[in-house]
Amino acid sequence: MAVIEVTDLRCAYGDHLAVDGIDFTVERGEVFALLGANGAGKTTTLETLEGHQAPQSGSVRLFGHDPRGERRTVRRRTGVMLQDGGFAGELTVRETADLWARLGTRKGDVTSDLERLDLQHRADVAVEQLSGGEKRRLEVALAIHGDPELLLLDEPTTGLDPESRRRTWRVIAELVDAGTTILLTTHYLEEAEALANQVAILRDGKIAVAGTLGQVSAQLPARIAFRTPTVPLPPELAALRVDSRVGELILETPHLQPDLARLLAWADSHALTLDRLHARGGSLEDAFMEVVA
Ligand SMILES: Nc1ncnc2c1ncn2[C@@H]1O[C@H](COP(=O)(O)OP(=O)(O)OP(=O)(O)O)[C@@H](O)[C@H]1O
Fold first, then answer.
1. Per-residue pLDDT tens digits for 135-171
2. Is the CB of 41 under 6 A from ligand 1?
3. Ligand 1 atom nearest to 47, measured from its CA
4. Given this model, what pLDDT does residue 233 score?
5. Which residue's alpha carbon is nearest to atom 25 within ligand 1?
6. Does one domain contain both 256 and 143?
7. ipTM score of the complex?
């Protein structure tokens, strides 16, 4: 049985349909990243999985259970981040973590939770005195308490400096190695690339593109770029041309290897050096830009 099963989910605020008929499943041990521009419906989907929101129609199942109707059963196995404003600002970091641990049913060492997110030296500081990035790390520390089977993470690294982000990725990767299933939302495509095996890109509450990272990237053409040569390109390559900015020429092709070989042969025959030549396959960023453009 899938850990998460979402079937024809619709969620509305008044008459505004924020999630408009989405389906996906997440199997045990997978990391599933929900991507999309602001307002695409990521948080609404996550809040429905957390049981904070009721679907307008369709269904959401975690471990085969309804996260609203069978909240206790689901919560025992699921780590979630505390909602915005859920902290009592005057409590210290350790008091907050202790309280959270007592409210839940999973056993675990709060000190080690704080250490994993590099917050041990902030343990006696009031939560209201934490920086934005430290607060976000505390939210992640609470979510991972007791090594849940499933983690639901809403933008786990937003506002973190690059080192803290990488550290958080390492913590998440360790949990995945230990068998945790993860669904996360993020605006950082490199985060999805670093962590996820499945992605779905939402647009206006619908899934526009979904699949493994490889499948999503492979749907987009490859790109070859180089500094503009002074000699005109042969027609079959000139037809691939999509853009030329600041002296760089970009060719898009679904057939990277033969077209790159053709380009190099042409450059050779004209004794040309193609400055700053680089070639790459389609990427998650290309897929994302295609969806949100
Ligand atoms: N409490 C609310 N009341 C009314 N409309 C809401 C509410 N929360 C979200 N919406 C609307 O629902 C849609 C989806 O919002 P949601 O927060 O799920 O998007 P998101 O993809 O998480 O966006 P972001 O990347 O900005 O966090 C948006 O149009 C948003 O304005």
1. 999 999 999 999 999 999 999 999 999 999 999 999 9
2. yes
3. 18
4. 86
5. 38
6. no
7. 0.97
Pocket test for ligand 1, best of 44, 47, 189 (most atoms within 8 A of CB): 44
The predicted-structure confidence for 246-286, as pLDDT tens digits, reads as follows 678 889 999 999 999 999 999 999 999 999 999 998 889 98
Q: Which of 9, 35, 42, 188 for mutating ligand 1's site (highest number of atoms within 8 Å of CB)?
A: 42
Could you tell me if the CB of 39 is within 6 A of ligand 1?
Answer: yes
Q: Is the CB of residue 228 less than 8 Å from the CB of residue 247?
A: yes
Number of domains in the chain: 2
Strands 31-36 and 181-185: parallel
For residues 159 and 16, membership in a common domain is answered with yes
CA distance 38 to 12: 16
Domain that holds residue 213: 4-217
- Is the CB of 16 within 6 Å of ligand 1? yes
| Per-residue pLDDT reduced to its tens digit, 93-113 | 999 999 999 988 888 899 999
Which tokens sit at 11? 């969620």
Pair (242, 255) in one structural domain = yes
Of 217, 246, 270, the residue at which a domain comes to its end is: 217
Residue 181 shares a structural domain with residue 50: yes
Query: 169 and 240, same structural domain?
Result: no
Query: What CATH number does residue 131 fall under?
Result: 3.40.50.300
Residues 197, 259, single domain; the answer is no
What's the gap in Å between 43 CA and the centre of ligand 1? 7
pLDDT score, position 131: 93
Buried b (16+ CB within 10 A) or exposed e, 230-253: eeebeeebeebeeeeeeeebebbb
Does position 207 have pLDDT exceeding 90, yes or no? yes
- Per-residue confidence (pLDDT) for residue 228, from 0 to 100: 74
Q: Note whether 221 and 254 are within 8 A (CB).
A: yes
Tell me, yes or no, whether 149 and 134 share the same domain: yes
Find the 223 Cα to ligand 1 centroid distance in Å. 34
Sign of CA dihedral 58, 64, 67, 70: positive
